[in-house]
Amino acid sequence: MLASPDKAPVLEMHHISKRFDATQALDDVSLTLYPGEVHALLGENGAGKSTLIKIMTGIHQPDAGEIVLDGQPVQIANAMQAQRLGIAAIYQEPMIFPDLSVAENIFIGHAERTPFVNWGRIVREAEAILGRLDVKLDVRMPARGLTLAAQQAVEIAKAISLQVRVLIMDEPTASLSAHEVEQLFRLVDALRRQGVAILFISHRLDEVFAIADRVTVFRDGRWISTRLRSEVTPEGAIRDMVGREIGDFFAKTPAAQRGESLLSVRGLSKRGVFSDISFDVHRGEVLGFAGLVGARRTDVGLALFGIEPADSGEIVFEGRPCTIRSPEQAMRLGIAYVSEDRRQLGLSLPQSITANITLPLLRRYAAAFGLLDFKAEEQTAERYKQQLAIRAPNVQVEVGKLSGGNQQKVMLAKWLNTAPKLLILDEPTRGIDVGAKAEVHHIINALAQQGIGIIMISSDLPEVLGMSDRVLVMREGRQMGVFDRAQATQERIMAAAIGGAIPDSPAPRADGEGMA
Amino acid sequence: MFHLPSALRRWETLLLAILAVVVLFNVTRSPFYLRIDNLVNVFELSIEKIIVALVMTFIIINGEIDLSVASVMGLAACVVARLHADGVAMPLAVLVALTVGLLCGAFNGFWIAYVGLPSLAVTLAGLIGYRGAARILLEDKSIGNFPEWFNALGQRPLVGPFPLALIVFFVMLIAAAIILQRTAFGRYVYVIGNNKEVARYAGIRVKQVKMRLFMASGLIAALAGVLLAARLGAVRGNTAEGFELDIITMVLLGGVSIFGGSGTLTGVALSILIILNLRNGMSLANITGNTQTGVIGALLILSVLVPNLVGRLRALRSRMRPATTGPTPQPAQEVEIS
């Protein structure tokens, strides 16, 4: 079963580097795939897995490095060419056309260039492919209504119909039930026997260890290790994933003393999204929300801000029980939510810095006859431009023209202007460069010292550890624990986020509230 | 204190230049053109449409469309005529017509704002449905014989050389400009048109804003319909039929993005002046109505084409930067900010 080194590799990626603006997404990584092996790729969010996939499928071009297919160097210029070379990817959410039949979905990519479709042949071949995979589906039925697992089977069949040599599976199990995962693994086995090289990406370590032949770990865009499965333990893999130095620029001044309780949440649930979330935030405290992408941390933030209200659970804000059903209501209570998606949810890009900052409180700027006081608006904007060091020629500049870091500061200004008591920051430093990141951390520190309670959702583990007084870890909509600063180590948080066994803490003291 | 991005300035400059050419052409071609009664006449023949175009500007900037306006105009006119023929006092008939318009707008607004249906579909249904109601009210009769004072309002000057409808238009133009550029509501209209979600995440009541816009659209369309009835002196089931396309043309030529989020009333006012003067000039020069329509169609195509080409060229040049705006770069992008 193990990939034998005596077989010739099908795909080799040598010394690949890729940079986006300030971010070195991939730095000199190499990866070799052999026919008939399942090769797991592990890494935290931002480790460079997605960038590698996009390079393999021709969506991005590497800045440096070489891709070798069957011993021949190749350029993968676009998705079409990747397909011709036999490289295909399937994702967490299968890309299925619900109104087309199963057979049509399987052959969607490559109808022959003849004027008429040979329906008989398409149906026969679709049946043959599914038969080889041991999948029983009526290929004439529309794909609508297929289970996720069946949709993935269709995706895999589609890849096979394209004579796939290398199949990338990007978190294919994330939305599947345990039973469906089993079905999927049988398909993966069938592919392996047919000599397909499979690059398998998953955050679930147990799955990785159940199916992979070899395991590669990336961290911060760099290659860390590649080992045979028999030579690697879950603990070792986690260590490789997180074992990085924490830069000292994350240092948060620890809360001088824990202020009174600001927000108290008990048993907050939203059906099918998250359940039984319980925590407290005190004035002047930073509560970190750690977890992997898809852990539903943002959904908890949205519930607290009233965008997608929770179904059940108690929220007590400043000692008063309340239900939050709209952003307006949350704003009146003194809650602000700084979205993770600057461009789609956070900022009106074609509008000025001023217009964006004053937006939530715009009515306050209305003077006589409801006319807006442009001067007062501008003064507000100027004040924040100075305070937060927003780098722009003036406050009339379109926000869309600013750098990511400055956009982030405009978003912070927009919400600080509402004078919040509780600030929910969702990925406050995603996609901004190191300098701007340090500035944002500095601002967060200062806000906490002014007594604002802060919830910081972040997928950047060192950031969470460096900035938080306490860390709440979520996994797939569930709360895995709340760790005090002293107990929160990268290994423990990552283990909780992945669902592994949490290693002993240096000071093994159960946290008072809500170790789930 | 007004800050306008250079692209917008260029767009409105372009409109101004076109207008200058049109006016120059008219002055040289016809000695009657500059007479005050002709200038009033320029407006008068389309006065109801340009009143409705003001509200349509808000709706399109908000990222929606209202195709039902002409049918609401027709329905309001028919309601007035029917009630008058049945012996109802004229002021009451007008009041009922305006209420009917408001309800039509509220009906559109409910489905669009609160149920979330696309305005294109909802108001297309309105276009058909309200027109149907108008035809049912009047069958195939033409009803006129309005009181003398009512016809006079539509046909005679009220103040100086200006008839009532023209005064209504100018008052509304000023009010609309102030609301759109100087109030929180106006700013919300732009933000929602740009990105509804950003507005929602900032605590803005998106549904309420949309509802109000469609109600205003219904009410103003009904008012325009009543004014039309007064000017024509008689109403039929097909009164104002097809006006919606002329109205939308005026707004789009004014540089308002069909995708929402950008445009100014200055641009729309200029585009109205261009269209009306072009039609008037061509009429004075004995150019047929069909040719006139063709010319205006060409102008609209150019107005959509030119900014898109410019935008695409600019996008090509700055390809390294990520796209920052909606699907189509449009000339006018911003509310003025102090």
What does this entry show, briefly?
The complex is a heterodimer of chains A (516) and B (338). Chain A is built from 17 helices and 20 strands. By secondary structure, chain A is of the alpha/beta class.
Structure explained in plain terms:
The complex is a heterodimer of chains A (516) and B (338). Chain A contains 17 helices and 20 strands. By secondary structure, chain A is an alpha/beta fold. Among the domains of chain A are: 15-224 and 233-242, P-loop containing nucleotide triphosphate hydrolases (Rossmann fold, 3-Layer(aba) Sandwich), CATH 3.40.50; 343-419, no CATH class. The relative contact order of chain A is 0.11. Chain B has a domain at 45-268 and 306-313. Chain B is mainly alpha-helical and 338 residues long. In chain B, helix 3 (47-61) packs parallel to helix 8, helix 3 crosses helix 9 (184-194) and helix 12 (243-253) packs across helix 13 (265-284). In chain B, strands 1-2 form a two-stranded antiparallel sheet. The longest helix of chain B is centred in the C-terminal third of the chain and has 29 residues, at 289-317. The A-B interface holds A 307, 326-328, 330-331, 337, 339, 343-352, 354-355, 359-360, 362-363, 365-366, 370-375, 377-378, 395-396, 398, 400-401, 414 and B 1, 3, 5, 178, 182-185, 187-188, 190-191, 194-195, 197-205, 261-262, 324-325, 333-335, 337-338.
Q: How would you sum up the major sheet of chain A? A: 6 strands, mixed
Largest interface here, residues on each chain? Answer: A-B, 40 and 32 residues
Amino- and carboxy-terminal Cα gap of chain A: 39 Å
Approximate strand percentage of chain A: 15-25%
CATH class of the domain at 15-224 and 233-242 in chain A: Alpha Beta
Low-confidence stretches of chain B: 320-338
Report low-confidence residues of chain A grouped into runs of 5 or more: 507-516
